[in-house]
Design a protein that fits this description.
Length: about 350
């Protein structure tokens, strides 16, 4: 094995896909997840894809005693990829204490324990929300960080500051912060994918649930923005491409490819796509029409943001590869599998 990696939140959407790519790259994976926004069956999906069932610890990373016990029972962990967090932008506005306590405690616990157990590399799941509404697109890593528009976004900004301060304080760890844009799609096998609890907040799961008839119609939150077709623009990145970026980041640290102890990378395609363009891409890629209606703007939405991924392409050696059409087909395939399995 190339090494043993702890994936926090590993039964979640991004965590499960990253676990598959870590196993494909020859790493042993230990997952800790409290299953607050995912389920144990994800482990079956991972095993069906790779033939390897990750070690699974059901537990709360916000509890330092739980984490210390995990490190004692799973010696030799070389790296950590930290996905575990509360992540609903809208919910965070109504429950700020829950978001600050949970997201920051998890991070502080991990940073505290890493030196104690000789863990070397730390990959942190951040978000393009740290940029707020960009002045210029495509956006590079040195763009100004603007005041977050939600407690969720603020926890990502504060987390980045905490990691920076811990590194400059002389901690022996290395860290890479990945700022994602909009992760979408599902593993092409249909074994794992995005499965939000309750009514989806994000565009693509709501779109595929509408396409299959679970939802009556997709609301398009505004077509009166200053964009070519009036709808918001995003950088939609395939989930498997995103997962592979994490393996690249980990290898960069574990193989000592960088003399910096802290690096930041935007993980996006570099292409801006509007909400309406994505909807039409789904319909043409799958042949399935999606009932939809233009409604009012959603509060807090950024008008347009897409990545300049040059640094990730050249320094990390990573590039988005899967087309939007194939990504839409993967999302639709996943939704149909959920129906076949009676899950939804
Ligand atoms: C995308 C666009 C909506 C739903 C958030 C977080 C980000 C990351 C991804 C966690 C917007 C429009 C959406 C719908 C719509 N989350 N939309 N109808 O807000 O760009 O990013 O999720 O890490 O950090 O900020 O993603 O998918 O919610 O919205 O018209 O039913 O789709 O208005 O323009 P968002 P989203």
């Amino acid at each position: 094995m190339k090494g043993k990696i702890l994936v926090t939140g590993g039964t979640g959407f991004i965590g499960s896909h990253t676990t598959v790519e870590l196993q494909n790259a020859g790493y042993e994976v230990v997952i800790i997840d409290n299953l607050s926004n995912s389920n144990r069956e994800v482990l079956d999906g991972i095993e069906h894809i790779t033939g390897i069932r990750p070690v699974f610890v059901e537990g709360d990373c916000a509890n330092i005693d739980t984490l210390r016990q995990l490190f004692k029972e799973n010696p030799g962990i070389n790296g950590i990829i930290d996905f575990a967090a509360s992540k609903a932008v809208g919910e965070s506005v109504h429950k700020p204490i829950l978001y600050y306590r949970n997201n920051l405690n998890i991070l502080l616990n991990l940073l505290d324990l890493m030196p104690e157990f000789g863990v070397k590399g730390f990959v942190f799941s951040s978000s393009c929300t740290v940029y707020g509404e960009p002045d210029v697109n495509p956006i590079t890593e040195d763009a100004p960080i603007k005041k977050a528009t939600s407690p969720y976004g603020e926890t990502k900004q504060v987390s980045e500051d905490i990691i920076h301060d811990v590194i400059v304080s002389g901690s022996p760890i290395k860290a890479i912060i990945l700022r994602y844009f909009n992760p979408i799609g599902a593993h092409p096998s249909g074994e794992i994918g995005e499965l939000p609890n309750g009514v989806p907040q994000n565009l693509v799961p709501y779109l595929t649930q509408t396409a299959i008839g679970i939802r009556k119609e997709l609301s398009i939150f505004g077509d009166d923005y200053p964009t070519p077709d009036g709808s918001c623009i995003r950088d939609f990145i395939n989930i498997v491409d995103l997962a592979k970026a994490h393996v690249k980041a980990l290898e960069r640290m574990l193989d000592d490819k960088s003399d910096s102890n802290l690096e930041y990378f935007n993980i996006g395609t570099g292409e801006g796509l509007s909400v309406l363009q994505l909807l039409h891409a789904f319909e043409s890629a799958t042949g399935v029409k999606v009932p939809h209606r233009i409604v009012g703007r959603r509060e807090g939405d950024i008008v347009k943001i897409w990545a300049d991924p040059t640094k990730a392409n050249t320094v990390l050696g990573w590039k988005a590869e899967v087309s939007i059409a194939d990504t839409m087909r993967s999302a639709w395939n996943w939704q149909k599998k959920l129906r076949e399995r009676g899950i939804m």
